[in-house]
Amino acid sequence: MIVAVVSADGQRMLLGRQSRWPPKWHSTLAGFIEPGESIEDSVRREVWEEAGVRVGRVIIQSSQPWPYPSSLMIGAIAQALPDGEAISLLDKELEAAAWFTFDEVRDALVNGTSALGDPVPEGYQGRLCVPPRQAIAHQLMQAVVDGYLDLTPKM
């Protein structure tokens, strides 16, 4: 599963980065569903393990087939609990995690996209680079900044 985590006030997005990624490159958090675990519980567990952030509401937003190893990536959007936003890298899977404003994410989605391993786009001055448009992480970030997560569930 892969998840875009939104702050309790709905104004910021939690993104993480691994040490092997290029400078400025961040993405949504991701992990595996354990046997017997619901998608929602796996989202809560993975976000807690990777970033120390506690999540309440989880919405399954999309999916993306992965031919190898015959897997299905499940995309979710989650909202942090009001008292659960403090970042603590518990399992050291990430080098860093940070809350970014929606304006920063919007700018990166338009001007700061690059494939993993590619340099920062020429002339881009933002502090955040994100995966390219075809990546489910990009699609989740776009859905969030476009207002997908609001008080009315989408049907």
Instruction: Compute the CA-based radius of gyration.
Output: 15 Å
- CATH fold group: Nucleoside Triphosphate Pyrophosphohydrolase
Poorly predicted spans: 151-155
C-alpha geometry: globular
Give the biggest beta sheet: 6 strands, mixed
Pfam family, one: NUDIX
Protein name: NAD(+) diphosphatase
InterPro entries: NAD-cap_RNA_hydrolase_NudC, NudC-like_C, NUDIX_hydrolase-like_dom_sf, NUDIX_hydrolase_dom
EC number: 3.6.1.22
What does this structure look like?
One of its GO terms (cellular component) is cytosol. One of its GO terms (biological process) is NAD+ catabolic process. Keywords: Hydrolase, Magnesium, Metal-binding, NAD. Residues 1-122 form the Nudix hydrolase domain. Belongs to the Nudix hydrolase family. NudC subfamily. The protein has 155 residues and is an alpha+beta fold. The chain has a single domain (2-146), classed as Nucleoside Triphosphate Pyrophosphohydrolase. It contains three helices and six strands. It has helices at residues 39-51, 102-111, 136-145, and strands at 2-6, 12-17, 29-30, 55-66, 71-80, 96-101. Strands 1, 2, 3, 4, 5 and 6 form a six-stranded mixed sheet that branches. Helix 2 packs across helix 3. 32% of the residues are buried.
